[in-house]
Structure formats: C-alpha cells, structure tokens
Write the structure tokens for this entry.
Amino acid sequence: MSLTQGQILERAATLLQDTSNRRWLATELRKYIWDAQHEFIRLTQFPIVTSSVTITDDQAVFDRPSSPPLMDLQRVRISNTAVEIPIVTPNQLDENTVILGQVVEADWRKQRGPIRAIVLEHMSSPTFRVFPYPRSTDSMFSSNLLSAIPAYDIVGDSATDVLVYGGSVITTITETAALNFEGVLETPTDRIRPTGDSTESPYVNGDTELPMISPTFHEALVWGCVERAYLKENELRNIEKSNMFRQRFLEQVASARRLEPQNTLTRNTGVNKKRFHAGWRWR
C-alpha cells in the first residue's frame, strides 16, 4: 500500500497522540520523515537506479552523475550497449603497468587515448576520472572493451564478427559518448521538503508526494519518524518508546535487505521453484 507524505505525517501524529501538532510541529515531522527515508536507503542499498553522464574529448575529469544523484557507483556501461567499463582506484594504476592491454605511463593522469577504465578516488568522490582520456582525434572508447561481450558472425566469416544490439548492428562503440552509471539512489534534500512547499522543486508535490522507496516499506517511514520524535528534547522525551519504534524500523530494513536482492537462487516460485524428487527402489 502506497502512503503519501501527508498520510505518513498523519499516522505519525496519531501514534504520538498529537494530531493537532502542538508538541511536534508538522515541519519537524516532515524532516524526520526525510531523515528516515535517507537512512532506510543507506542501510538497505535500494533502490538501484541508472544515471547518465556525457563524455567529451580533451577532458579527463567529470562531475558525478546527478540526474538522478547516486549514493555510490556500482557499475558503468556505455550507453546503448552491453559494454561494461571497469571501475578502478588510483592505487591500481600506480601499482600496475598494464590495464586491459593498455600500458600505464608513470604520469597516467595526463595519458591520452581511448577510454578503458573509470577511476574513483573514493566511493563518495564528487568527481570521477576517465583513463586514458581521448583527444578529439581519438576513438572515444577502446575496442578492447568489446572482448568481454559476445560477438555474432552475420556474414559467415569469423574475421568480420560484429556486435548485434537491439536488432541493429554496432560496428564500433565510438557511436555513443554517454556512460550509464548504476548505483544506490541518493535522496535529494528537497525530495520531501520540510515545509511541504512544491513551488521551488521539480521533485515534490507537497504532502501528495510519494516516497522514493518501494510502497512495501512505506510503513518504515512512519516508525522512523516517530522514533526521532520521541528523542526530541522536551517533556515528552521517551527513550524506551523511541527504541521500540527503532526496532520496528530496523525490522523493515532487514526485510528489505532479505527480499530486494535478486539472483537465480532468490527466484524460488513458478518455473524457478526448486524441486526435490525422492524415489524408492526395492531390491
């Protein structure tokens, strides 16, 4: 069941027995809702979304993807292809002499050529570097990156293998300059605004706005909001009640971490259902 910001606010106020907002202002509770949502996403590492960055030649450093912003960068693919680019650290380039068939020069930060890797200083770095970075006369991406994906021979000659994508033939990965980053969604500070005002941001519609997490776990924002409200320094501060709602919030976090990840072993219904057959043989 989906809950809007207004419905979460109403439920939290009811649990606090303060529907008139005398002890906890609505602006306070909205802040607590946003804080709970941010913590939920940080702890569960969901949802995972894709954000793009356009790469230009003669430039080595680019800003982190921001539409939407990502909490971390887990995977990078060249747009419109299945080609994945490795993410490396500066230490790896300092310590290795060859990366994906490319000789790493001593001053690799100034090295030019088709892109072979993305370099991150640390997980939350506001920028990333491409290695090497292409000149205007270079191909944008190294053809060596294609070796990690299957090629299909469409003319009967293995020497002319090409990549087929979406029904069309891609003969080179230099046709696109965009990188698609996959990572955990970073909650913008104005996704659920403390004032409920929607006039200044494209992200919100006041109290009709839906949270960024799955409706399955919207109830967690109610628990997280009430937990924080009971920690407020006033005559109603109640550590015991706060801890109780904290446990409810963490139960939702644990449920999301158990149910949200997908792999072949987690799909255990329908045709994927694991079956065990026992038979008897008489001698």
About this structure: Residues 239-259 form the longest helix (21 residues). The chain has two domains: 5-46+189-259, 48-184. Residues 5-46+189-259 form one domain.
